[in-house]
Hints:
Immunoglobulin-like, about 40% strand, single chain, about 10% helix
Amino acid sequence: xxxxxxxxxxxxxxxxxxxxxxxxxxxxxxxxxxxxxxxxxxxxxxxxxxxxxxxxxxxxxxxxxxxxxxxxxxxxxxxxxxxxxxxxxxxxxxxxxxxxxxxxxxxxxxxxxxxxxxxxxxxxxxxxxxxxxxxxxxxxxxxxxxxxxxxxxxxxxxxxxxxxxxxxxxxxxxxxxxxxxxxxxxxxxxxxxxxxxxxxxxxxxxxxxxxxxxxxxxxxxxxxxxxxxxxxxxxxxxxxxxxxxxxxxxxxxxxxxxxxxxxxxxxxxxxxxxxxxxxxxxxxxxxxxxxxxxxxxxxxxxxxxxxxxxxxx
Length: 313
C-alpha cells in the first residue's frame, strides 16, 4: 500500500487533475506516484497513526483534568485571601480614598464659653414714652396714629413695637393693632417717628398703648445722615417737598429713607409720609436730592419735620 512519505498516511485526495495531496498533512504527492486509496472526505484531516504501536500518548499539563484541578486551586487561593486579608485590603482602599479627598486634616476644637442662643433682654413699657400722638383719619374709615416714641432706658434698643388696644364704654375690647418705630434702633434718650394704622376702625371710647423692645441683637452703629435743606414748594398746582441729604460718613450707605411730618401754623401734626431715595446708595460725603409730591390743596403755612434713616453698606 502506498503511504505518505511525510506522515505515513495512506489516504489521499485529488486537488486537481495533476495535483494529489495527503488528506492528513496536505503534503503534495508527485503525479508519478499514484496513490491506491482515496479518501471519501478529502478535506477532512485524518489522524496520524503513531509510529510505534506500543507507544502511549504523552500526557499534557493542559489536559482537561489538569485544567479543572488548576481552576479549583485558583478559586481556593482567592477565597483564602478574601477570608484572611479582606479587612486589610478594605482599610488600604479606604485610607487611599480619604487621603485623596482630604490631603490635610485639621481638627478645630469648639470654643468654650460662647452661647449659641441670642441674648434677649426685654425692655419694659416704663422705659418708653409716647409723645404727640395724633389721630389722622382718612376718607375710607381708617385711622392713623402718628407721633414719636422715645427710649428712656440706659441702653440702646432694637426697633420698638407699639401695641394699641381699643375699648368701648363698657370696657370691652373692640379692636387691636400695632406698629413699629421708623428707626431700626434707638439710643438712650433718642426718639423716632411712628405711624400705626387702625384699619376699618370701630367706634371706641379709649385706647391703651404698650411699648416693647429688647436689647440690641448685636453691637452696631446706625449711620448718621445730614439734612442739607428741606422746603415746601408749590410747582404749578402741586405741592412738593424738595430737599437734599448728605452722607457725612467715611463709608457708603444704602436704602436711605426720608420720613416726614407736616405741621400747621399751630404746630399740630397734619400729614405723615415716608419715601426712599431713588439713589439706592450714597457714597462717602455724597449728596442726593429728593422731590416728593404731596396731594394737598393748601400747604402755605405748613412746615416740614424730617427723620432720616439708612443702612450701612
